[in-house]
């Protein structure tokens, strides 16, 4: 039995640089206001404190976010933690077609993450980074793209299980 597992995280430095700059700008504006008005009421600082908390929570979310993919004899499983607490399973017998493809995250899906395209032909995407994904077409017509950084490994394990997929019967 071959098993493929992959875990991807948002570890692109530009994301954290942008979030850190935002957090520093809010903190500096708060400090600047406190210097100007030592006697400022607490109610005047609530919006700035709220902004710091929100940016902090966004940073925490990006630190926790991860796309987990597992392929085994039961099918293809994926989870976008912490937004999905358990794996979603796609059994082999519900897949009519699959292939590895290059995609454009911005023009096709509007970026990375859990994205639905307005164009029915591209479907839904679960991506963290990069431009390579496993494209699935289900027998019910739905399309799902799962991003990967391990193209060769995923191709090898899919070859092992290709006999479990039967195209739509007409």
Mind sketching the topology for me?
Elements: E1 4-9, H1 13-36, H2 42-64, E2 66-72, E3 75-81, E4 88-91, E5 95-102, H3 105-109, E6 113-116, E7 124-127, E8 132-138, E9 143-147, H4 151-161
Quick structural overview:
The protein has helices spanning 13-36, 42-64, 105-109, 151-161, and strands at 4-9, 66-72, 75-81, 88-91, 95-102, 113-116, 124-127, 132-138, 143-147. By secondary structure, the chain is an alpha+beta fold.
Helix content: 25-40%
Described by the principal axes of the CA atoms, the overall outline is elongated
What pattern of helices and strands is seen along the backbone?
EHHEEEEHEEEEH
- Which percent range describes the beta-strand content? 25-35%
How many angstroms does the end-to-end distance come to? 31 Å
Radius of gyration, whole Å: 21 Å
Taking strands numbered 1, 2, ... along the chain, how are they ordered across the largest sheet? 5-8-9-7-6
Class of secondary structure makeup: alpha+beta
Number of DSSP helices? 4
Low-confidence segments, ≥5 residues, pLDDT <50?
Answer: none
Give the mean pLDDT.
85
The major pleated sheet works out as: 5 strands, mixed
Give the tally of β-strands: 9
């Amino acid at each position: 039995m071959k098993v493929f597992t992959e875990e991807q995280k948002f570890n692109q430095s530009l994301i954290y640089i942008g979030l850190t700059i935002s957090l520093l700008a809010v903190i500096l504006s708060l400090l600047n206001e406190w210097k100007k008005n030592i006697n400022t009421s607490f109610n005047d600082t609530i919006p700035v404190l709220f902004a710091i908390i929100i940016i902090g929570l966004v940073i925490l979310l990006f630190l926790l976010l991860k796309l987990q993919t597992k392929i085994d004899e039961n099918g293809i499983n994926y989870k976008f933690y912490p937004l999905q607490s358990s794996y979603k399973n796609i059994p082999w017998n519900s897949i009519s077609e699959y292939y590895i493809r290059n995609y454009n995250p911005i023009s096709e899906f509007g970026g990375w993450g859990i994205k639905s395209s307005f164009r029915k032909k591209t479907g839904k995407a679960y991506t963290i980074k990069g431009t390579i994904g496993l494209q699935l077409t289900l027998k019910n017509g739905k399309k799902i793209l799962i991003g990967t950084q391990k193209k060769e490994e995923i191709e090898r394990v899919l070859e092992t299980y290709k006999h479990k997929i039967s195209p739509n019967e007409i």
